[in-house]
Amino acid sequence: MDIRTLTGELSVSPQLTLDDIHAAAEAGYRTLVCNRPDGEAPDQPGFAEIERRAAELGLQARYLPAEPGKVSMKQAAAFARLMDECPKPVLAYCRSGLRSATMWALSQAQHMPLPRIVERGAEAGFDLKGVVRRIANGGRTPVEAADATHEVVIVGGGAAGIAVASSLLARAPGLDIAIIDPADVHYYQPGWTLVGGGVFGVADTARTIGAVLPRGVRWIKSAVAAFEPERDAVVLDGCRVVKYRQLVVCPGLKLDWDAVEGLAESLGRHGVTSNYRYDLAPYTWELVRGLRGGRAVFTQPPMPIKCAGAPQKAMYLSADHWRRSGVLQDIEIDFRSAGAALFGVAAYVPALMEYVERYGIHLHFGQTLVAVDGPAREATFRRTAAEGTQETVRVGFDLLHAVPPQKAPDFVRASPLADAAGWVDVDAATLRHKRLANVFALGDVTNAPNAKTAAAARKQAPVLAHNLLALRGLAQGEARYDGYGSCPLTVERGKVVLAEFGYGGQLAPSFPKWLLDGTRPSRLAWYLKERILPPLYWQGMLKGREWLAKPELVG
């Protein structure tokens, strides 16, 4: 646990784990203050989990969340009140500790000389000069004063960001590129389905950001607070400013756990789990192995979500384990989806329906999860009938695999880059922003009508890299993305329905039908999913090796 002392009564730290709370109690802290909103990262325990563990150990826990780089004077005042009211010493935390330090710095603006604030921050390992500039500027961030400038700035160090940086460098070695991402760990999220099915170990899906960052790329380890495209600037957490010549936006999605009442408080216990979070995928497998009878409910929220097939992949692998264990007949399986169909591309539905019937799965469409009562083991759904009427349905469960609603990150939705729905507004073929000539985007955060999958990002990265370099006069012609996406639907251990499609649901198979018919379950497709796709991801996509991903050029 990395604890930094700011005063005798206040220390700050990066995100706490549940185990860290015991260490904090032993160290003598009496109050925990969470300054990080739930759902910022796929490995982040929710505040409800932190609060519950703190109470067990006799600590108070308070929730005062702030978006990165957007700590307000009002929040700073609330922080000061908490410091007055709460038992001390206090340990405040966020992703890195910087938001907590910023709240303290702003709360001290009228009580401590600015140089002393900077000095205290530096002693604790935080650069608070940007905060002081903001105080001196009447609360506003002065974007004219850049802390750094790069030719290409990429926001997001996930699959899309690392892949596009590598594709750029493969075409233009030595290009000045910076990636902005606050995370320490890079995840192979498609592997979490197999973790929840007992095939992969969860540690196999994680590597440090430093291990996957392309050589020569500058890593700015910070969160983005805002975009200032009229000034070619990105404002970071801590009020620092980075300027660019071209901007690439790919921060992924935000999982909105709090949109479902009671879900955040129930995760990881009471039989409530989700393969959409790194630390919960192993709990899925624990629940699946332990269930010998009862009801298992699998949910799917309204679109868009990342990997739309993942909710039912978890269901099929679970059902297959129960079949192999001889208990399937004692388990009632429900699939409750907000959508109107089992899968969005009709060609793959017949094969999936065979497994629905084999496992005895009950399909319920038009049902959106709205509340979870973990102790009572009851889930509440809003059911929408064909004529548009709505009613509430309550369902008991012994296992609940919940998938939260998903949306663009807050700093994207509130930015000039977003469309009316909050997604980055790009041309669906070129991935260039429709209004801002030097801004591009790819991955889950765009409004292009493709499936939000890692396979889509793999095809998008070379297209975007070519078009960005063409804008710089370093490439000829225009590359076009055809909407390709792939969803390896794990229908049983050892077989996969390999769904591959482009814009409009057009089938886009990578292999001839005699070798691999994606509309039928296949052992070869399972081999691809289990053995080929992980190294293709780590050693191909993230290294700029565009195997089966060369862009189509026109002009």
Structural commentary:
It is a single chain. Helix 1 (18-26) runs parallel beside helix 2, helix 3 (73-85) crosses helix 4 and helix 7 (159-171) runs parallel beside helix 15. The N and C termini lie far apart (55 Å). The protein has 16 helices and 28 strands. Strand 26 and strand 27 (495-501) form a beta hairpin. The longest helix is centred in the C-terminal third of the chain and has 18 residues, at 454-471. It is α/β, with parallel strands linked by helices and 555 residues long. Strands 6, 7, 10, 11, 12, 13 and 24 form a 7-stranded mixed sheet that branches. The chain has 3 domains: 4-136, Protein tyrosine phosphatase superfamily (Protein-Tyrosine Phosphatase, Chain A), CATH 3.90.190.10; 148-253 and 408-554, FAD/NAD(P)-binding domain (3-Layer(bba) Sandwich); 257-406, 3-Layer(bba) Sandwich (FAD/NAD(P)-binding domain), CATH 3.50.50.
Topology:
Elements: E1 4-5, E2 10-13, H1 18-26, E3 31-34, H2 47-56, E4 60-63, H3 73-85, E5 90-93, H4 98-107, H5 114-123, H6 129-136, E6 148-155, H7 159-171, E7 177-180, E8 185-187, H8 192-196, E9 206-208, H9 209-212, E10 218-220, E11 224-228, E12 233-236, E13 241-249, E14 254-255, H10 263-266, E15 272-273, H11 281-290, E16 294-300, H12 310-325, E17 331-337, H13 349-359, E18 361-365, E19 367-373, E20 378-384, E21 390-396, E22 399-401, E23 406-407, H14 410-413, E24 439-441, H15 454-471, E25 478-480, E26 485-492, E27 495-501, H16 523-540, E28 552-554
Parallel strand pairs: 2-5, 3-4, 3-5, 6-7, 6-13, 7-10, 13-24, 15-22, 16-17, 16-22, 17-18
Antiparallel strand pairs: 1-2, 8-9, 11-12, 12-13, 14-23, 19-20, 20-21, 25-28, 26-27
Helix pairs in contact: 1-2, 3-4, 7-15
Keywords: FAD, Flavoprotein, Oxidoreductase, Quinone, Transit peptide
GO molecular function: FAD binding; hydrolase activity; quinone binding; sulfide:quinone oxidoreductase activity
Organism: Azohydromonas caseinilytica
